[in-house]
């Protein structure tokens, strides 16, 4: 049973401030060659994945508030991608849920597509894993044929093609981010439905609802790497505090000219927000102490 | 007589065939097709050969029936507790042994730890037929792959074969698996969900008893467990599932996989012995049951062998 849940792993479309995808003036050799290769890969995609439509009449079951361990594995999530003056920083929480049970509290939602392009996954875990696997395979071929590292635009386009062609059957909202020598750091958002949109920063997943206002205020152009990383971690922890479907630890991946750096922020290193309590070993320690702590109002 | 494709006309030309005329009219599916002006029957779409592949039409029909209130017949599930953990030398897998058919225990001592390769084993939860079939299929594929490559199978190979099979069936193959093994790259433990997603974890639980078992793991697991500690922790987690989950019960199976060696400890613990047995025992003496009547019919051979005949052609 696939649950179509509004706000649960969906990336809301139609946000006003978006810019159109720039048909960028990259170097002609690169654009022509890679475009023709991506066209041939597009055809390969199409043949491989011309799945029959219609028989997956998605069972629009009512969202059950019980445990429902048979629900599809979904990354109800918070994913973030920001550009800075030198590359991109991708960030995500680590919670994978089946219904109301946390199936994996330490999952890695930032998946490698190539050395220089990574993707943050949200939505159905199975769908996004399969899409990543296909795109990794196509990009590998593309890199061999091209003779140089693939561009971020090609990677994002491949994700978009798979997402759009199979939109009836997939529930996948992703953020593709990477660095290449032509355009530097780039972030492409590919939400549900298969739109592709290049943005200076992007947020996605169920926890992103809580971050639109935060980014409106806190985002600025041309940040340093430290500022960008701190912004991503702060944003992710804010969303995890408010969204039930996000939690666990924060993972970040930085991609720039030098390469890729992975960082891990455990729950105890994240800041505590309004009404969040300090972690204690056991409430029994409080009870056995001589003066019991008064309840805070 | 003009050449027509009309079956009735054919019978007029070949009168012997008309013996079966009545029957064929009964079963002829093309009887009701309107004839064109030339008396040629038009070909229906159903005459095309069926394409291969899984037909999802029945899945929508099943859902429609469920919505109308028709109940599905209960199939045998391994409502279950299966666990796996990584210790310092390899992986330990564990499972209970109860198979249920709705509320009834269909098998009190079934095997849920399936063989994939000499160095890879897989615990299965969900529909018993699905887990058996999918693990058997991937196990055969792995063996063919071993013959082709000449190398020991890797856990990620099994993982990819399982996940792509389950994804293509969109969750209708209800198999939730804990896959563990040791290969040249080291020990690996993965969980595979019916929709085709996978997780890689140091410890994992699946099945209806997964919450009970996970509580044990979350409190007691640490990195670098020894073999004895690992087995003990796995047995404890399975027992938590056996005693606190109605879908799990009976005995504990354990499988320890290390580099170069695999030990399948079938019925490692039997925490549910049958204690209330009559001390006098059960005896069924001949003559206790009353015989009402006896009829003996000798079996006569109806087969006649004929010697000779034509030799088979090469």
TrEMBL record, chain A:
It comes from the Eukaryota. SUPFAM superfamilies: N-terminal nucleophile aminohydrolases (Ntn hydrolases) (SSF56235). GO terms for molecular function: threonine-type endopeptidase activity. The 26S proteasome consists of a 20S proteasome core and two 19S regulatory subunits. The 20S proteasome core is composed of 28 subunits that are arranged in four stacked rings, resulting in a barrel-shaped structure. The two end rings are each formed by seven alpha subunits, and the two central rings are each formed by seven beta subunits. The catalytic chamber with the active sites is on the inside of the barrel. Belongs to the peptidase T1B family. PANTHER family: ATP-DEPENDENT PROTEASE SUBUNIT HSLV, METALLOPROTEASE TLDD. The proteasome is a multicatalytic proteinase complex which is characterized by its ability to cleave peptides with Arg, Phe, Tyr, Leu, and Glu adjacent to the leaving group at neutral or slightly basic pH. The proteasome has an ATP-dependent proteolytic activity. Component of the proteasome, a multicatalytic proteinase complex which is characterized by its ability to cleave peptides with Arg, Phe, Tyr, Leu, and Glu adjacent to the leaving group at neutral or slightly basic pH. The proteasome has an ATP-dependent proteolytic activity. This is Proteasome subunit beta.
UniProtKB/TrEMBL annotation, chain B:
The keyword Hydrolase applies. Belongs to the peptidase T1B family. InterPro entries: Ntn_hydrolases_N (IPR029055), Pept_T1A_subB (IPR000243), Proteasome_bsu_CS (IPR016050), Proteasome_sua/b (IPR001353), Proteasome_suB-type (IPR023333). GO terms for cellular component: cytoplasm; nucleus; proteasome core complex. It catalyses: Cleavage of peptide bonds with very broad specificity. It comes from Rhynchospora pubera. The 26S proteasome consists of a 20S proteasome core and two 19S regulatory subunits. The 20S proteasome core is composed of 28 subunits that are arranged in four stacked rings, resulting in a barrel-shaped structure. The two end rings are each formed by seven alpha subunits, and the two central rings are each formed by seven beta subunits. The catalytic chamber with the active sites is on the inside of the barrel. One of its GO terms (molecular function) is threonine-type endopeptidase activity. This is Proteasome subunit beta. The active site is at 80 (nucleophile). The proteasome is a multicatalytic proteinase complex which is characterized by its ability to cleave peptides with Arg, Phe, Tyr, Leu, and Glu adjacent to the leaving group at neutral or slightly basic pH. The proteasome has an ATP-dependent proteolytic activity. It comes from the Eukaryota. Keywords: Cytoplasm, Hydrolase, Nucleus, Protease, Proteasome, Threonine protease. One of its GO terms (biological process) is proteolysis involved in protein catabolic process. It is found in: Cytoplasm; Nucleus. SUPFAM superfamilies: N-terminal nucleophile aminohydrolases (Ntn hydrolases).
């Amino acid at each position: 049973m696939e649950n179509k849940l509004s706000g649960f792993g969906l990336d809301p479309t139609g946000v006003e401030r978006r810019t159109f995808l720039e048909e960028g003036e990259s170097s002609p050799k690169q654009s022509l060659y890679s475009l023709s290769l991506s066209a041939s890969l597009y055809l390969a995609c199409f043949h491989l994945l011309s799945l029959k439509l219609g028989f997956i009449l998605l069972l629009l079951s009512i969202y059950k508030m019980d445990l429902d361990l048979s629900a599809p594995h979904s990354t109800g999530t918070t994913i973030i991608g920001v550009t800075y003056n030198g590359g991109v920083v991708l960030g995500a929480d680590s919670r994978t849920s089946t219904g109301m049970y946390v199936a994996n509290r330490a999952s890695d939602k930032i998946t490698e597509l190539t050395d220089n392009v990574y993707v943050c996954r949200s939505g159905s875990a199975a769908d996004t894993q399969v899409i990543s696997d296909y795109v990794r395979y196509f990009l590998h071929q593309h890199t061999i044929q091209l003779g140089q590292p693939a561009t971020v635009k090609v990677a994002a386009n491949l994700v978009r093609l798979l997402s759009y062609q199979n939109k009836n059957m997939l529930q996948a909202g992703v953020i593709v981010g990477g660095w290449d020598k032509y355009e530097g750091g780039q972030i492409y958002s590919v939400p549900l439905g298969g739109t592709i949109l290049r943005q200076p920063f992007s947020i996605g997943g169920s926890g992103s609802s809580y971050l639109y206002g935060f980014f409106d205020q806190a985002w600025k152009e041309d940040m340093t790497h430290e500022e960008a990383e701190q912004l991503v971690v702060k944003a992710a922890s804010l969303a995890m505090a408010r969204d039930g479907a996000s939690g666990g630890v924060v993972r970040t991946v930085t991609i720039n000219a030098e390469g890729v750096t992975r960082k891990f922020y455990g729950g105890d290193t994240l800041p505590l927000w309004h009404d969040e309590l300090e972690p204690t070993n056991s409430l029994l320690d409080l009870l056995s102490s001589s003066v019991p702590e008064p309840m805070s109002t | 007589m003009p050449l027509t494709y009309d079956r009735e006309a054919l019978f007029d030309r070949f009168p012997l065939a008309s013996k079966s005329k009545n029957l064929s009219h009964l079963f002829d599916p093309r009887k009701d097709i309107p004839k064109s002006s030339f008396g040629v029957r038009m070909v229906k779409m159903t005459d095309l050969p069926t394409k291969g592949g899984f037909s999802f039409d029945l899945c929508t029909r099943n859902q429609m029936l469920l919505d109308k209130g028709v109940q599905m017949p209960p199939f045998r599930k391994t409502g279950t507790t299966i666990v796996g953990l990584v210790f310092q030398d390899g992986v330990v897998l564990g499972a209970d042994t109860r198979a249920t058919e709705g509320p009834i225990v269909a098998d009190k001592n079934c095997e849920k730890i399936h063989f994939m390769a000499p160095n890879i084993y897989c615990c299965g939860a969900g529909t018993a037929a699905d887990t058996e079939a999918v693990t058997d299929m991937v196990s055969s594929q792995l063996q063919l792959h071993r013959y082709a490559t000449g190398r020991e199978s890797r856990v990620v190979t099994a993982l990819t074969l399982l996940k792509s099979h389950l994804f293509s069936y969109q969750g209708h193959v209800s198999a939730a698996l804990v896959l563990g093994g040791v290969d040249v790259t080291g020990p690996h433990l993965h969980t595979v969900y019916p929709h085709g997603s996978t997780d890689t974890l140091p410890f994992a639980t699946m099945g209806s008893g997964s919450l009970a078992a996970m509580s044990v793991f979350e409190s007691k697991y640490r990195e670098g467990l020894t073999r004895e500690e690992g087995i003990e922790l796995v047995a404890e987690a399975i027992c938590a599932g056996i005693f606190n989950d109605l879908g799990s019960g009976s005995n504990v199976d354990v499988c320890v996989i290390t580099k170069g060696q695999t030990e399948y400890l079938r019925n490692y613990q039997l925490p549910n012995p049958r204690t209330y047995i009559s001390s006098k025992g059960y005896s069924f003496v001949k003559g206790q049951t009353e015989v009402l009547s006896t009829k003996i019919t000798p079996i006569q051979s109806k087969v006649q062998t004929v010697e000779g005949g034509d030799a088979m052609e090469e």
